[in-house]
């Protein structure tokens, strides 16, 4: 059962990860061979950071990648600086790496083939308190960019580049097609479907284990995705439906 279309409340997400996920960037929440990091993202217009998916069907070097923006330092006690005007530092005053610094060093080490790419679990916020599991990604690159803050001033910000990974439970060709489909359900469609179906399975009204269900499988030409061919289904009804298609 693919997990990556799953819709979660904030509480579900925190329980699944056994963490109070209060920050967007969470480096190596688990260590060791099965270790991974977590990032929280949002493509909503009012999101604090403008993360973006680069279109898969282009020749652009970033095609298919998630571009995740580095985060500003939280305002520490006594600071009067606007975090949007000062740079995003690699280290804290104590010399320890910031979250940006930890992800950056891992990305650069992976790019230089000095270590395997960090595995990153991505969750996307689609409405207040409502999240969507976007699956595992590999952190493959990062950069530090000067961006203008005024006529003669710039500040340095981080950019992180992640490639969707095949998750251990999503390795069949069928799953890969489904994964491609789920990635291509645009956020605006997800938000519209969530509102229309009022956060419930359209068949039984359940609010647990909900998924976005795409009526026409992508492999059969369901390429134009609108709210009309996407609906909310619970895990049970989603599973019943996929059994019928096979
Ligand atoms: Zn149901």
Structure overview:
The protein is an alpha+beta fold. The protein folds into two domains: 6-172, Roll (PUA domain-like); 184-246, His-Me finger endonuclease fold (3-Layer(aba) Sandwich). Helix content is 22%, strand content 30%. A hairpin with a 2-residue loop joins strand 6 (118-127) and strand 7 (130-148). The longest helix is centred in the middle third of the chain and has 13 residues, at 99-111. The structure holds zinc ion (ZN). Zinc ion is lined by residues 201, 203-204, 206, 233-234, 236-237. The site of zinc ion has 8 residues, from strand 10 and helix 5.
Ordered list of secondary-structure elements with their pairings:
Elements: E1 6-9, H1 10-17, E2 25-30, E3 36-42, E4 52-53, E5 66-69, H2 99-111, E6 118-127, E7 130-148, E8 154-164, H3 173-183, H4 187-196, E9 210-214, E10 230-234, H5 235-245
Parallel strand pairs: 3-6
Antiparallel strand pairs: 1-7, 1-9, 2-3, 4-5, 5-8, 6-7, 7-8, 9-10
The chain binds zinc ion.
Zinc ion binds next to β10 and α5.
